[in-house]
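Exercise 7b. Backbone tokens:
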């Protein structure tokens, strides 16, 4: 799976364009992030956002903003006028988050694709005081879904009788 998270600074403000049929908005911008070593120059990368994310990028972000980008990395190959092929990396964003600067409202975009939300369980659902599990199902009365520790007897665990035995030997 090609999934990347990148923290970078926008060095060229987003440009909003549309597909040839003027149906789908596309925002593209240039971001910069530090090299792996301190002596390496900063790297730049083209970032592209589609549809609603493109509109959000264009409306809420500008040059100088520090952002965290979620998305995927793709390599584009194209023919140069000089007669050779060139590869360029492009980051296709699915989410964008602002970093730092509290003067702007913290924004966090929803995923770019259309996810269903009617089947999402709230994170605090474990705090329920009763459980749907019946006592007959597990043989234990359940009054709270808060995890508790229990001591389980280890009757069926074989005891090692020979401490010098090589455990890497395969018995066949």
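Sequence design result:
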């Amino acid at each position: 799976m090609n999934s990347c998270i990148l923290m970078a600074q926008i060095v060229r403000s987003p440009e909003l364009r549309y597909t040839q049929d003027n149906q789908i908005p596309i925002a593209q911008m240039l971001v910069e992030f530090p090299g792996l070593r301190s002596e390496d120059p900063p790297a730049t990368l083209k970032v592209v956002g589609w549809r609603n994310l493109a509109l959000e990028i264009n409306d809420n972000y500008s040059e100088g903003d520090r952002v965290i980008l979620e998305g995927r990395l793709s390599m584009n190959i194209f023919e140069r006028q000089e007669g050779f092929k060139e590869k360029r990396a492009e980051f296709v964003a699915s989410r964008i988050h602002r970093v730092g600067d509290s003067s702007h409202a913290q924004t966090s975009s929803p995923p770019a694709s259309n996810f269903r939300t009617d089947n999402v369980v709230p994170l605090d659902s474990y705090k329920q005081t009763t459980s749907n599990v019946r006592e007959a199902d597990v043989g234990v009365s359940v009054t709270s879904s808060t995890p508790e520790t229990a001591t389980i007897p280890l009757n069926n665990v074989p005891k090692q009788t020979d401490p010098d035995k090589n455990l890497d030997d395969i018995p066949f």
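Instructor comment: DSSP finds two helices and five strands in the chain. Confidence is low (pLDDT under 50) at residues 133-138.
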